[in-house]
Amino acid sequence: MLRKTTYLFLFFAILAATGHAANAEVKTVISSGQYNMGDRDSKADAKNIALLNAKRLALEQAGTYLKSLSEVRDFQLNKDEISSIAAGILSVNIIDEKWKMEGTNLTVTLTIEARIDTGSLDSRIKAVKQDNDRVEDFKQIQNELARLKAELDKLKAQEQQAATQEKHELARLRAELEKLKIQERQAAAQGKNEVTGLRAELEKLKTEEQQAAAREKKLAEDQEALDRQKHVTISRMVALESVEAAFNKIINSDDVAGALDELSGLISADPEYAIAYATRARAYIKLDRRREALADVEKALELNPDLPRAYVIKGILLLQEGNSGAALEQFARAIRIKSDCGPCYFQMGVAHFRDGDRREAYENFQKSCEFGFEKGCDRQQRMEENMRRRGRD
């Protein structure tokens, strides 16, 4: 949770017509997010953070609702699958915006109405069960959001610490300077010999004050740099929602071309946003534009070498080109970053299977299954059945 957030509150209201949960088409969640501005926060950034907080709570409530619905209808969904599906069927509208002073700080509260459309729930659940990769991609997006939130907290803490320390030092020096000036005037009026010594000390302190003023100027420059970085971080947090929306279009094949345009727009606005390139690579793959997909995933890894899904996508592309050795290296890199990456072990199994190494293939499918990747379990089971058949023959 962001450090400046003073509180978040949520109430869950069912506004759709009454009836059995299995027959409901739309449920509505009302959630609110609040943000207490700091001295250097902009209103636009504060509003964006409050909105992100409100949406996060709405998503949690949507997940809770889907979990209860899945239990009633025996969908057998795990937590990550529920979150992935909830994000894809949630639409949001701001219904209230309030600004008020709390102490010396301005506070914004945004209230949203989030609609959960369960009309396509069965098809989306089926798609998730058939393609666990989409869950991993969703988790990557959520991990990126968590990373950006942590980065923002760190930047705000650095800003406050630096400002407080320098301001206190400057205030101390100026107070000491004023004290010596008073002593100098008193000594001069009385004709005392201490004037010469006071003036020497005064000149020394003036030098220290000038140095402190130079540090204050440097502090202002550093704070401006922190402000810019904060704005970039917040902008990426906001853009991540567009990435997620585009991702849902891609995996559901709703409007892949539209998703591609959206992602290209995000990249034009922020050419160093790694996850946008990684997600656009998925769109290119859907459109069978492998060369462009490979270029995007390589750019994503250049910008952020810690994206395991990007290595997996690159490995899949290399495997499709028949380069299993290079593909295996990409999957291995992903596993070094994320040791419990079920899809990574699954693709390792696929690569070994194509190379004719059945033992390595089986062990990787087994490992993939242990980490909850259902396609790995299916391939492991099929290989075991084949081994039993060959034993009987």
Largest sheet: 4 strands, antiparallel
Number of helical elements: 13
The CATH C-level class name of the domain at 241-392: Mainly Alpha
**What CATH architecture of the domain at 241-392 do you see?**
Alpha Horseshoe
Report the helical percentage. over 70%
Can you tell me the overall shape?
A: elongated
CATH T-level fold name of the domain at 241-392: Serine Threonine Protein Phosphatase 5, Tetratricopeptide repeat
Strand order of the largest sheet: 1-2-4-3
- Estimated share of beta-strand residues: 5-15%
Radius of gyration over C-alpha positions, nearest whole angstrom = 29 Å
Order of helices and strands: EEHHEEHHHHHHHHHHH
Query: What integer is the average pLDDT?
Result: 79
Count of extended strands: 4
Give the termini separation. Answer: 60 Å
Corresponding CATH superfamily of the domain at 241-392: Tetratricopeptide repeat domain
Structural class: alpha+beta
Low-pLDDT segments, ≥5 res: 1-24
